[in-house]
Amino acid sequence: MKRLVIIIGLLFITSCASVPPSEYKPEPGAKYVTASWYGEKFHGRPTSSGERFNMYDLTCAHKTLGFGTKLRITNPDNNKSVEVTVNDRGPFITGRDLDLSYGAAKEIGLVEKGVGRVKIEYLGRDMRYAGRIAFVPSGSTGSASLTVQVGSFTEQSNARRLKQGLEYKYSDVHIATVFLKGKKYYRVRIGEFSSYDNASSVAEKLADEGYSTIIMSKD
Question: Which of 22, 48, 149, 153 could pair with 159 as two cysteines, CB 3.0-4.6 Å apart?
Answer without folding.
Answer: 153
